[in-house]
Amino acid sequence: MRGMWSVVAVVAVVVLVAMYVTWLAGRLDRLHARAAAAARALDAQLLRRAAAAAVLAEELAAPELYAAARDALDAAPGEREAAENDLTRALRLIDHPAGGPAGEAVVAASRRVELARQVHSDCVRDALALRQRRLVRLLRLSRRHDRPGYFDVGDTTLELTPPVPA
Predict the structure, then answer these.
(1) What mean pLDDT do residues 48-61 have?
(2) How far apart are CA 68 and CA 32, in angstroms?
(3) pLDDT at residue 88, as a whole number
(4) pLDDT tens per residue, range 17-43
(5) 97 DSSP β-pair partners
(6) Does residue 64 surpass a pLDDT of 70?
(7) Contact of 116 with 38, CB cutoff 8 Å
(8) What CA dihedral angle connects 46, 118, 23 and 147, to 10 degrees?
(9) Predicted local distance difference test score (pLDDT) of residue 162
């Protein structure tokens, strides 16, 4: 009788460990999927901001801003962070007239970029934290997924400047 209970206990422990490992692998898959979706959303918001900046540059006749916006739109994946940081610097150098639709579009797009960047950073942080767990590394549960990376772009929030009274 004693031998039967030890077999039942061993089987129960094996089942519990297998359930935990399965749950952990599923969680890892979900976190990587969230990080990839957040990266795509960030990319879309960055493209919208660059397009809005190009429209604003044409409206204000600002060739430096237009060049930075075109560089951000046409940047290769490896050069994207630098191009987006250059666009942010160019946007900070111009005055955003309050009430102008192009200026408001750029400010709104910049706010959405900042929100998308924060979501992306949170997803990447969570995925990387789970990848560092001892059991995940030991069982190599993350081998099917590329290591997610942060998108290092500066603070993109902009403010509208009120019009100067005449």
Answers:
(1) 93
(2) 32
(3) 92
(4) 999 999 999 999 999 999 999 999 999
(5) 161
(6) yes
(7) yes
(8) 60
(9) 56
CA distances from 3 to 8, 12, 14 (A): 9, 14, 17
Matching residue, tokens 């990319």: 43
Distance CA 92, CA 122 (A): 26
- Do 95 and 62 meet the contact criterion of CB atoms below 8 Å apart? no
**Residue 58, CA distances (Å) to 55, 62, 64, 84, 96 in order:** 5, 7, 11, 18, 13
Q: In the predicted model, is pLDDT for residue 165 greater than 80?
A: no
pTM: 0.84
The 3-state DSSP class for residue 106 equals: helix
Longest dimension (CA), the chain: 97
Please provide residue 147's backbone torsions phi and psi, each rounded to the nearest 5 degrees. Answer: -70, 120
pLDDT at 98 over 60: no
Residue 160: what pLDDT?
A: 61
Compute the distance between CA of residue 6 and CA of residue 55 in angstroms, rounded to an integer. Answer: 73
Averaged pLDDT score across all residues of the chain = 90
Q: Residue 32 has which token pair?
A: 């990587």
d(C-alpha 97, C-alpha 161), whole Å = 6
Integer CA distances (angstroms), 38 to 33, 113, 119, 123, 129, in order: 9, 11, 7, 7, 17
